[in-house]
Amino acid sequence: MNQEKTSYDLVVIGAGSGGVRAARMAAGFGAKVAVIEDRYLGGTCVNVGCVPKKLYVYGSSFSETWSDAAGYGWQSESPTFDWPTLRDNKIKEISRLNGIYDKLLENSGAELIHGRGRILDPHRVAVGERVLDTQRILIATGGWPRMPEMPGIDLALSSNEIFDLPELPKRILVVGGGYIAVEFAGIFAGLGVQTILSYRGPNILKEFDREIVEQLVTEMPKKGVEVRLNHKLYGFEKTDSGISVSHSGEDSLEVDAVLMAVGRVPNTFGLGLENTDVSVREDGTIEVFDHFQTREPSVYAVGDVTGTVALTPVALAEGMALAKYLFDGALKAEVDYDHLPTTIFSQPNIGTLGLSEEAVIARGMRARVYTSRFRPMKHTLSGRDEQSLFKLIVDDASDQILGLHILGPDAGEILQGFAVALKAGATKAVFDATIGIHPTAAEELVTMREPTRLVGG
Hints:
With 457 residues, the protein is an alpha/beta fold. It is 28% helix and 26% strand. Strands 1, 2, 3, 4, 5, 6 and 16 form a seven-stranded mixed sheet that branches. A six-stranded antiparallel sheet has the order 17-18-21-20-19-22, with helices on both faces. The protein has a four-stranded parallel sheet with strand order 10-9-8-14, with helices on one face. It is globular.
């Protein structure tokens, strides 16, 4: 290997959301920065995560919109869907975003190096034949789809491959109970694919408010998703007509494609952590302490690889906080993880902020729960059988809102503004004093007057 003569203030491994934000800001503060990436700029979110997924959610929703239009007087033959058009237009958009990330790094003054970074010691990183000397190393390598060991697993796809299928399957089995599995089940059903969502346990989306999730499970079959809970899978076998699934059900199950969405693992393979004092947890995530510093003083980590909240805006905030701390005189690098708004782009969407009802009870808090169930106004004429559920959980003593949960169209768009209110400390009394926008779904959150129940204590 050739020793790189130029020393860096910071070498970032991983050009995803957290890594790029940290690199850009550090370079802007005058640091000499290199960014190493072996796949694509923008990381999981831009390439095989939230951006293409949201585009596919949009694409899949048009079938329902077309059907609903009849109640509003629109008459025409049923449209046909062309998978290659959606797929290829998505590819063009992601390519455009890759170029934007490239320009952002270039304009910031950070150096982009293509290749797999491997840490040689606390101050040296190898990329191919180069060895970079650096004062500090930032690990921002994100996560990777987990593929469980089972017979025929090579026949299954992960979320890395599912976006670019050569052709749309007629039948698909989506395996998992997290948000990725739920979202893709809705996408494929909306595109006209016979879709089964399989989960080995009794409850999908285990970390979310149960009342909201149970309503989603009620809605999913109406949109073409067959949900199988307590469903065990034993393996897959290729047949002349598809993929045969060995499972706990009594029926014979054959599909054209299997998507394994059973979680993600930290992307640290071959990273060279063994050459440092960096410690990892049992699940492989990197331990970080104050200021996102690992047990190795010169090595830092941000984003999904650390096992914190796996959200793109969180990685961005962590990268920004770290750059300010290291190179702009900030006294500390920290992110406030309270009141993080989260949306699952299921169909209908889930938006969640703060504590679930179950979490409130587990903490021994006494709270008033307000709920509103209603049919979205759009469907009064479309005739679609769909119910929204809005929910507020309020501390009975302080009137502080502990949790805000939404199941319904555009939940994420509604939630963002309320997240600002909760961050500012809004109480239920403030909500009650706020005039609603009529007619909207969002006004439900400022017009709920009588609690549905009291919980905890």
